[in-house]
Design a protein that fits this description.
There is one protein chain. 46% of the residues lie in helices and 17% in strands. The mean pLDDT is 96. It is globular, with a radius of gyration of 25 Å. It has three domains: 206 residues, 3-Layer(aba) Sandwich (Rossmann fold), CATH 3.40.50.1980; 145 residues, Rossmann fold; 33 residues, no CATH class. The chain has a six-stranded mixed beta sheet with strand order 1-11-10-9-12-13, sandwiched between helices. The protein has a five-stranded parallel beta sheet with strand order 6-5-4-7-8, with helices on both faces. It has 16 helices and 14 strands. The chain is of the alpha/beta class. β7, α8 and β8 form a beta-alpha-beta unit. Its EC number is 1.1.1.23. It is an enzyme of class 1 (oxidoreductase). Pathway: Amino-acid biosynthesis; L-histidine biosynthesis; L-histidine from 5-phospho-alpha-D-ribose 1-diphosphate: step 9/9. This is Histidinol dehydrogenase. One of its GO terms (biological process) is L-histidine biosynthetic process.
């Protein structure tokens, strides 16, 4: 594999300091509840509101600040996401009765978690699309209580009106003006104004990700997401202008986002590098995008598509685009990715916003063992069983022997006593 444009190694974060800082915030929220949340709201966002929950009047005010077109756009995207989530839910079936032997009935139910929190980041941009991506599949799964939270706009007591409207359109039952590690702690352990939930989903900065790690176990999480990633597999038929645009779409997320191109064409590789530089000169978000591209952008020349495919599977990227002459054939050989985009017409940003698939995806090679947020994230497959007396008497001797073989006499007797009952 020839390196056309190299990237830096990601800096080793001060993980120990981060863990300590986040742990201190979590402990503060557990001990001091809302007082700690209000204090952190003011410290980090200059927000001085005392009521953390957003009122109906504030939601109406948010709608009033948006144009009809903006509201219609959010609703149209929501319908696509809702339709795909409903179709996914329909594939998950309950198993009411399976009988391995006469008198034994086994089965499972598909049960939604009872409550969840959808964490919608604020940061540099109002990421209102994330509100749709989180709350809609939760509602499609049948979660009875869907809460959502987001930090307020810097120096105000308000969540971005677009984010607030999107949360409402997505069906959130409760909305709170709070963000950061403190929000994760609040929804994990509860405060005076916030009742704890069973699961927390959504991306965030390093503090949010670390808080989710530390709270996992007390509360369920989707995964701890890191910087955004895009990998493009391309051959000589790909369009360098399109590929460069997709790379920069990822690069503008933040300075540690990563855009990678693996191609079998050296001519295309050189064209992509030149095209990225050209487009950066006219990109409004060039300051962040250029930093990301310069530090973490990468262009590699593979000897064959098979070598490119092996490299992509090893990288397990968050977003994986195929821009080759036969994208479907390449797709069959790929197995590690958060979401796959096949063909030059299929922009990664379509999935970010409105195609219907989810954009909350695993990063930092987590796609090796998990997919992204989907309706199944909020569902539990819970088994059940029942025995007739005859079936119990047939199976009990086997279970008794197996239990004694492990040295667990109490287990053996729980089986044996049933067998010995007249």
């Amino acid at each position: 594999m020839k390196v056309i444009k190299a990237s830096k190694e990601r800096p080793l974060s001060a993980a120990k300091d981060l863990r300590a800082a986040v742990g201190a915030i979590i402990d503060d929220v557990r001990e001091n509840g809302d007082e700690a949340l209000l204090r952190y709201n003011e410290k980090f966002d200059s927000c001085r509101r005392s009521a953390l929950r957003i009122s109906k009047e504030e939601i109406a005010e948010a709608y009033a600040q948006l144009s009809n077109e903006e509201i219609d756009d959010i609703r149209e995207a929501a319908e696509n996401i809702r339709g795909f989530a409903a179709a996914q839910r329909a594939t998950l079936k309950e198993l009411p009765a399976y009988s391995p032997k006469p008198g034994i009935t086994l089965g499972h139910r598909i049960i939604p978690v009872h409550s969840c929190c959808c964490y919608v980041p604020g940061g540099n941009y109002p990421l209102y699309s994330t509100a749709l991506m989180l709350a809609i599949p939760a509602k499609a799964a049948g979660v009875p209580r869907v809460a959502a939270c987001s930090p307020t706009m810097k120096g105000t007591d308000k969540i971005s009106p677009k984010t607030l409207a999107a949360m409402d359109i997505a069906g959130a039952d409760e909305i709170y003006a709070v963000g950061g590690a403190q929000a994760i702690a609040a929804f994990c352990y509860g405060t005076e104004q916030i009742s704890p939930v069973d699961m927390i989903v959504g991306p965030g900065n390093s503090y949010v990700a670390e808080a989710k790690r530390q709270c996992y176990g007390q509360v369920g999480i989707d995964f701890a997401a890191g910087p955004s990633e895009l990998l493009i597999i391309a051959d000589g038929t790909a369009d360098a202008e399109i590929a460069a645009a997709d790379i920069l779409a990822q690069s503008e997320h933040d300075r540690v986002a990563r855009g990678i191109v693996i191609t079998t064409s050296e001519k295309f590789a050189e064209e992509v590098v030149a095209e990225v530089e050209r487009q950066l000169d006219e990109l409004p978000t060039a300051e962040i995008a250029r930093s990301s591209w310069n530090d973490y952008g990468e262009v590699l020349l593979a000897d064959s598509l098979d070598e490119a495919i092996r490299a992509a599977n090893d990288a397990a990227p968050e977003h994986l685009e195929i821009q080759t002459a036969d994208g479907e054939k390449v797709a069959e050989k790929l197995y590690n990715y958060g979401s796959l985009f096949i063909g030059g017409n299929t922009a990664e940003v379509f999935g970010d916003y409105a195609s219907g698939t989810n954009h909350t995806l695993p990063t930092m090679r987590a796609a090796r063992y998990t997919g992204g947020v989907w309706v199944g994230t909020f569902l539990k497959t819970c088994t059940h069983q029942s025995f007739t007396a005859e079936a119990m008497r047939e199976l009990a001797p086997l279970v008794t022997r197996l239990a004694r073989g492990e040295g667990l006499e109490g287990h053996a007797r729980a089986s044996e006593k049933r067998f010995n009952k007249k």
